[in-house]
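Predict the 3D structure for this chain.
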Amino acid sequence: MSAVSNLGTINEAIAATIPDRDAIVFKDRRLSYGQLAERTRRLANFLLNQGFGCHKERDALSPWESGQDHVGLYLYNGNEYLEGMLGAFKSRTVPFNVNYRYVDEELAYLLNNARCQILIYHSSLAHRVESVRDQIPSLKILLQVNDDDSVALLPGAIGYEAALEKTSNVMPDLQFTDDDLYILYTGGTTGMPKGVLWRQADILAAALGGKTSNNEIIPAEQFAERADRVNHRYLTAPPFMHGAGSWVAFQALHSGGTVLVQDNVYRLDADDIIDTCIRERADVMMIVGDAFGRPIADALEKNPRKMPALRNIITGGAVTTASLKSQLLSLLPHINIVDAAGSSETGSQGQHVSNSDSGAATGRFSLRPGNVVLNETMDQVLEAGHKELGWWAQSGQIPLGYLDDEKKTAATFVSVDGTRYSVPGDRVRLLTDGSLELHGRDSITINSGGEKIFAEEVEQALKHHGDVYDAVVTSRASERWGQEVVAIVQLRKGATKDEASLLGECEHHIARYKFPKSFVFCNEILRSPNGKADYRWAKAQVED
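Done. Predicted structure below.
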């Protein structure tokens, strides 16, 4: 094996250095780095024995093409999810994430779009696999992970543990490269999911712990040395099938840390997350915005507990409001809350830290190396203090494109003055002091009376109100405005509906033309398991 920036070979090098350290802790299972390496070699050899792997090298392919076989991970959190990723990397196949909330039509679309050949799934999801398997002509192998003893193996499926037991634990002798693929499917909350293609060397630097705090790329041979002297314990509360969750898990594995998984992986159980952090001495907790942070803060208010080991809460994928950060800091005054900005198409783009000394603020980010703001037509880099709304763009270690989609690849990955940028759709202004004013994702903007309104801006304004537990903003057709802003609001228990009070809070944060024209109140706002708003669901609520 050469010392390339390949995720499989890096795992092997770290395992050889710290074989006895805990790599993954889940319920009563504690997998050391040595055991994780052995189990993932076995999975790799199983896939290779079935004839899967890499069939065409990168230099013979277009940016949106894959020459490797694809392994779907239709799993809840647990050691098998991370094993599935590493086992695929070590066989030169490519793992991809599958949303376990999808209904049959969405699931069939995703598996066909990904040209899925091997599907690793939990037995509790077997009924969904059974209902779509005949619609996926590329599907060859089903590997069933037992999480429910009452569910039998599907006809023709192979038990996951049985597959590992019968296979060699020797590391495959393959020509691993930096160009081996990493695929991450976007959530599809506003449109159909897209498979983002990354070179492993690029995603390693962009999101998986492959850079220093000074933004320098870590040489592959230094990962093992760093792991030998660093040891952090990370609890990643969101699903691994969400990019932010798996990215933080791999940041842990790439630094010799331990990935901690809460017991209840089927729904968000704030007390379980807190108790796992305390029991396993987590010093890092990863959440997704208010959707995760608010239940955790409420659980600590209801049942105060000390979390002395915890030092950092990392939040990404959705906004964490300043009011919630203040609540968390009052409960855990010794922690840092780290906002991490980024996307499936850029990796990490920026960080903002709130703590007891600096105070709590909704993330304000500064441009980091490789980040720029492009003008409306994406053909010019804007200077600080520009008046127009621009596009937040990333250069350097960025994806190749979208799987099998030349048109969308060309629209998102553009060249300006000879530099290639990823432009996933975030609208921003670069202020004169060098900070970014975030407005939101262009795909969820509302055009009302000729004015562009970003749904996320209105959501944040509403969440400042003390009676609002959660809020999602969408639009519906209007004779007068073309589109009108509608807010779907989940109130705190015991709070009464008071639209005037909600609009009064909005006055402190946004212009009047952005105010909701109507409110829909509900008992619970539906979000994806990763905590992100489901805007298709929101549309259906206001249209009904």
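The first strand starts at residue 22 and ends at 26.
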